[in-house]
User: Fold this.
Amino acid sequence: MTSPLSPPAAPSSAVRWTPRLWGTLLVLCAAMFLDALDVSMVGVALPSIGSELDLSTSTLQWIVSGYILGYGGLLLLGGRTADLLGRRQVFLVALGVFAVASLLGGLVDSGPLLIASRFIKGLSAAFTAPAGLSIITTTFAEGPLRNRALSIYTTCAATGFSMGLVLSGLLTEASWRLTMLLPAPIALIALLAGLKLLPRSEREKDHNGYDVPGAVLGTASMLLLVFTVVQAPEAGWASARTLLSFLAVAVLLSVFVYVERRSAGPLIRLGVLRSGNQIRAQLGAMAFFGSYVGFQFLVTLYMQSLLGWSALHTALAFLPAGAVVAVSSTKVGSIVDRFGTQRLIATGFALMVVGYALFLRVSLDPGYAAVILPSMVLIGAACALVFPSLNIQATNGVEDHEQGMVSGLLNTSVQVGGAIFLAVVTAVVTAHAPAHATPQAVLDSYRPGLIVVTFIAVAGLLITLPGLRGRRAQETLVVAKSTVKEAEAERVAVRD
Assistant:
């Protein structure tokens, strides 16, 4: 973890990045870009997919949920696999699978096959995401170099998400299949470049065997948790099916913790969660992504269903948030070096709270520049500060052989947080759905969901605040130690 007690690192300008180092980072950024691009593109294309393949609304949901299920359910396994089998090998194999699944997704002619291709893509992303992040954290030294690399890396995720919205609006006009096929050639190019540029990584030699029970229990519990949360709004949160599923998740997680505490080579070393900074990073990631996914869901419905905006118009409305992130990409690393992750995360969550709260002013005839744009700019600034800082905070101070594990844990927090809070926001909106669906009544049913989104961001801010107090205490300790040393030096000088 970043600590004020650590000696100051050399400025990033002191070490010149070689073309190969830049190439390595670009390959990893391409994979992260594709993950985000794929998530955002499919949402706009769903109506066209349903019309051509004659799919029901519940089946269409699984085109999105299938990806989330594969991604969120297998991240823990993906992270630890990267540590044990080699990050480069795992990353390249998974990227190849992603390219093939993208190609198949654009060619199939049935709903079940399309859902299967989406699940496979999510599964492959569950291996590329933690492997890619751990390659960065083991290639770039902790401090300014890593902070700069991670700020560029996380910016690519936000840029991919923003561009996905716009590209989907354009491509769907021609054919929804293009939105499925577009990632395939990009993934293939990244794969070929990765074969040449990615540093070779050795398998972990001193591990104590493979934690097969932990892998089975961890994967099963995450798959069931994501499945239960995704299905809960449709099945009913208080239904026997949902409650029994949550009970089964609790049992699986309890057994998983029991196994991990006694395993010689655990899938997750539970000791990493004794760090307050690590816990705040994981919970912050859940609140950050969960609030944003809920916000985007409601705002997309508001703009398209109530205001009658086109998919492209809606995408362009979100674009300022992505533009703020993209423009700030080269600056965030140096800002982290100066102020530390805790302050930036707290500042970012505060901006999110204000941005979400301002959006509550929307009406059936909003002025974009006066009402919607301020929220988008504030949320974009928040994303630029929070997401890179969370990645830096979660991976700093972690040994190289556990970077994949921590990366998988962080990505799991992001995906599970998104799934849980989106389901909660959906349930709140559904509970307030009007009997007579006039436009104003529908808008009024969205407001409780927006309030929930705002409170999720408030929770993220409150989670961060104890880290600020801990930082001030450490800084005071450093000053006190320095003062004692200076006084001792003065006494020695007088005596001499």
Q: What stands out?
A: The chain has a mean pLDDT of 82. The chain has 16 helices and no strands.
